[in-house]
Amino acid sequence: MEATHAFPSAMTSCVAARGRSPHLYQGAVAMILVMEKGGALRAKRAAGERAAEMVEDGMVVGLGTGSTVKYAMERLSERQKEGVRILGIPTSLQTAILARELGIPLTTLDDHPDPEIAIDGADQVDRGKRLIKGRGAALTREKIVAAAAARLVIVVDGGKMVDQLHGVVPTEVLPFALTPILASLKTLGAVPVVRDGVAKDGPVISDNGGIIVDAGFGPIKNPEDLERAITMIPGVICTGLFTAFLQKTSVVVGGEKGEARVL
Predict the structure, then answer these.
(1) Are residues 147 and 62 in the same domain?
(2) What's the number of domains the chain is made of?
(3) Looking at the structure, do residues 134 and 258 belong to the same domain, yes or no?
(4) What's the pTM?
(5) What is the DSSP letter of 86?
(6) Are 20 and 93 part of one and the same domain?
(7) Could you tell me if 149 and 230 lie in one domain?
(8) Which has the least CB within 10 A, 61, 141, 150, 154?
(9) In this structure, what CATH number is given to the domain that contains residue 113?
(10) Residues near 33 by Cβ (< 8 Å), separated by ≥ 6?
């Protein structure tokens, strides 16, 4: 049964269970979370696999970083076995490792500076196809590959689509300039926080040696202006706002039932 069909009855059970037993309530909540997770995974897989079908034989493909791109790479690996020849340009060490595990041959922008297509994910996508990226701390290399590619395909589930960009804008900065950059971000209206590492002490360090700062904003009225303003701060390596690639961007949105639509 699809989660979208089962959710209302599960919610009813959850509410009823709450009044009878905390154990029943917790079990009902767990059931809802499992169904929601399953739907999100189907949506990510649908988007990733649909994007992989856009790749043609002989193409050089920019490979983004993240859980939805992983599904695209898995499908690309399958398509190779079907006879499609590709080369991949990874945007992170994590992606390079996964590509090798999947048997996707890799190259570089030095050898192939004009990839035909790049496939990547996003944290948010607005109606104009402007993006916030950087949750995976690979935003700088992702932006470089996106700029080089003839076409940018963004893969997301429906929860990433928004009317207006808002919230955290990841920003990669030089460690030497961290303190003045934090002050400058505050003057732009941000609440900047240095992202803490997981399973390590200290901040998240990118593949480039930069520190990731999560700059919290409210609704972003003019993403283009904010991207320029952040980029102009001395010591900023890259901001997670992507507003310069609208004309060549397609967005593949996956649905919880396994469908995908291209915007």
Answers:
(1) yes
(2) 3
(3) yes
(4) 0.85
(5) E
(6) no
(7) no
(8) 150
(9) 3.40.50.1360
(10) none
CA-to-CA dists, residue 250 to 32, 129, 154, 163, angstroms: 32, 8, 6, 17
Going residue by residue through the chain, which has 263 residues, state the pLDDT in tens, using 9 for 90 and above: 333 333 334 433 444 444 444 454 455 444 444 445 778 899 999 999 999 999 999 999 999 999 999 999 999 999 999 999 999 999 999 999 999 999 999 999 999 999 999 999 999 999 999 999 999 999 999 999 999 999 999 999 999 999 999 999 999 999 999 999 999 999 999 999 999 998 889 999 999 999 999 999 999 999 999 999 999 999 999 999 999 999 999 999 999 999 999 99
Strand pairing report for 191-194 and 124-125: unpaired
Longest dimension (CA), the chain: 65
The amino acid at residue 9 is S
Token pair for residue 137?
């701390």
101 is catalytic: no
* First vs last C-alpha separation in the chain: 28
* Parallel, antiparallel or unpaired: strands 131-132 and 152-157: unpaired
The single residue of 2, 49, 82, 142 carrying the catalytic annotation is: 142
Return the exposure string of 61-98: e unless at least 16 CB atoms fall within 10 Å of the residue's CB, then b.
Answer: bbbbbbbbbbbbbbbbbebeeeeeebbbbbbbebbbeb
Q: Which residue range forms the structural domain that includes residue 57? A: 45-162+244-262
66 & 120 share domain: yes
Q: Are residues 85 and 7 in the same domain?
A: no
Residues 68 and 175 in one domain: no
C-alpha span between 116 and 108 (Å, rounded): 13
Specify whether 50 is located in the same domain as 22: no
SS3 88: strand
CA 96 vs. chain centroid, Å, equals 16
